[in-house]
Design goal:
The chain contains 3 helices and 8 strands, in the order H-E-H-E-E-H-E-E-E-E-E. It is an alpha+beta fold and about 200 residues long. It has a single domain, classed as Porin (Beta Barrel).
């Protein structure tokens, strides 16, 4: 059921993005500087194996890209994801346990704009390293474990060009660890600043 909900949510965001993109004005958004600095935050929707032990989480991140053409941006990502265990994990310990799980994503990305105008649809793909850390405190004893896994993501988004070389954007993305059955969907909003 959670997988179906995630798919429906992702398709709804994509459909909304497409509709808004089709309503875009014919005016060309002028990006003078070549560098794009973006910050974003959002909601991580878990499913599959991850849903079995973790609640939905949150994400925050930043990226820096270089605009090679008006339609193509290449750059690097730094994303932070945080998940907390659900009751099926903590209940057997009678509330005497605290668990936190975080994941930092270091990735390279490519973003391709699909149309012109002040409302621009884009597709975005990235690949890199996911560094996970889990901390457990039980009866006063603290333990921690880390992992490093390759991963990838794909996203569709809508960028609304603003004033003073800035824009806001809405994005739906799918992330997966390669070789692991750990994947989730992120919904985020952010701002981009076109500099240098």
């Amino acid at each position: 059921m959670s997988l179906d909900f995630s798919r429906r949510s992702a398709f709804a965001v994509i459909a909304l993005s497409i509709c808004l993109g089709l309503l875009s004005t014919p005016a060309q958004a002028q990006y003078e500087p070549n560098f794009e600095l973006s910050v974003q935050g959002g909601y991580d929707r878990t499913f599959s194996v991850l849903k079995d032990f973790a609640e939905d989480g949150f994400a925050a991140g930043a990226s820096l890209g270089y605009r090679f053409t008006d339609r193509l941006v290449l750059g690097g990502d730094l994303q932070f994801h945080s998940f907390h265990p659900n009751d099926s994990v903590t209940a057997p310990f009678g509330g005497n346990i605290e668990i936190s799980s975080t994941m930092v994503e270091y990735a390279g990305f490519a973003k391709l704009y699909l149309n012109d105008g002040k409302r621009r649809l884009y597709a975005r793909g990235s690949a890199g390293l996911f560094h996970g850390r889990t901390e457990i405190t039980y009866l006063g004893v603290q333990m921690a474990g880390t992992s490093d896994d390759p991963g990838m993501s794909g996203a569709l988004g809508l960028e609304l060009f603003g004033r003073n070389n800035s824009a806001t954007f809405f994005e739906a993305s799918y992330r997966r660890l390669i070789g692991e059955d750990i994947h989730w969907v992120s919904f985020s909003v952010g701002a981009s600043f076109f500099i240098w």
